[in-house]
Amino acid sequence: MSRFKTLALVLVLFLVFVLLELLIGSRTALPSPERDHSSLNTNRWGTMALQEVCARLGLPTRRWGAAFRPGFLRPGETLLILDPQLLPTPDEYRTLWEAIRGGATLIVAFSGERREAPLSLVGTAEAKRWQPEAASDLTLAYLGLRARPTGAATRLMVPEEARHGVLTGVGAVEIPSAQRLLPGATADSIRQQAEELWDDKAPSFSLPGLSARQTLLQDSAGRVLVRFALGRGLIYVLSEVETFSNERLDQADNAVLAVNLIFASDRPGRVLFDEYHHGLLLPTEMPSDLNYRAFWVALGLALLALMIYLSGYGWRLGRPFPVVEPSRRSVLEYVAALASLYQTARAGGLAVSLVAGDFRRRLAERLRLPASAPDDLLVEAARSRGWATSLEALLPRLATLSENDRLPDAEVVRLVRTISYIEEALLPHG
């Protein structure tokens, strides 16, 4: 079979595998059973639906996968910290508050449920910072709040007169847990906890410029949604993150509330979902519309196609044909023919003179001497390097030869062998 037919067969097999992969990939994947509120999670507790809503409304979205650093959040942009598990450092808090003062918006929501650290954190520097309760308590401490399970799951009705601003179009909000926000100064226990976690670098939990605290939603058990103004930016604190989960987003007017919070800025820009403090160590900020499953599928198919091609390239799909080498004479034939000419002409002296001249030139070059150097100088230089002294007998004999000498064949062979032996010993790189 020709190579063209072999390649065609490989391509056909590749297309068959692509078709099978598409058929398998079209099946609905089982959702993860973990109570994880990540924007990458598609189960009922995840928040991927909220990220997709933002993208469909024309807002660029990103999943932030690194520690907060200066410039990561620009004015007009919105950062969502949903169910933080990884405790931010004091420097990260300072960076975050400065970004809010510059005109950014922060939406932060907590969960009353605690989950175990993922295996991806094992052996990392972030493993010690997996402090879900501290991440919640210390963040709220900056805002003079605390979260406690004082209420019950309920559908909170919004009065008609309160439906303005971020509550425009919001008639009811589904609150799926008992957690509520309560006012309260930072307790000494919180300060002590911060000092232990941050190695005596705990801040004062004071935010200069924090003002205009406004309770937007509440019931008899406590606050549900609180708004703060910090510099030119806004902070919204929601008591329960599952209000924006995949399962709850389409209930009551939860989706309307979420969109209103994100569009609270005059010029809403990019929306960032903080996955780093949620516990996912992404290598960098990642575009939300990147289909990672499709990437791995494409990579797997490419490797599979390569394996098929390499396997098919080595198959014998036809009758074997021997490789015919081009006809050419051996070098030994030329040497034998030339030696026969010298022998017939009885020109042994000429043959040895040619070999001796080349040998003497290479020897002088190796000893860093001119080609016309006398024999005694060559011998002395060779002896100073610790070489064999057989040159003392060979060089005078070669000097007495003439091109017209008719040497016996045995003498020619002996001289040439001697030269060859010395060349191998003294001129290994010649």
Shape type:
elongated
Number of DSSP helical runs: 12
Sketch the major β-sheet: 8 strands, mixed
Radius of gyration in whole Å, from Cα? 43 Å
User: How many separate domains?
Assistant: 2
Strand neighbour order, sheet with most strands: 8-9-10-3-2-11-1-12
Question: Which structural category fits the helices and strands?
Answer: alpha/beta
Overall mean pLDDT stands at 80
Tell me what the structure shows:
This protein has 430 residues and is of the alpha/beta class. The chain has two domains: 31-290, no CATH class; 331-426, no CATH class. 39% of the residues lie in helices and 15% in strands. It is built from twelve helices and twelve strands. The strands form three sheets. The chain has an eight-stranded mixed beta sheet. Helix 3 links the parallel strand 2 (78-82) and strand 3 (105-109). It is elongated.
Which helices and strands occur, and which strands form pairs?
Elements: H1 3-25, H2 48-56, E1 61-64, E2 78-82, H3 90-101, E3 105-109, H4 132-142, E4 145-149, E5 154-157, E6 172-175, E7 179-183, H5 188-197, E8 210-219, E9 222-230, E10 233-238, H6 254-262, E11 271-274, E12 286-287, H7 292-314, H8 331-344, H9 348-366, H10 375-384, H11 391-399, H12 409-426
Parallel strand pairs: 1-11, 2-3, 2-11, 3-10
Antiparallel strand pairs: 1-12, 4-7, 5-6, 8-9, 9-10
Helix pairs in contact: 1-7, 9-12, 10-11
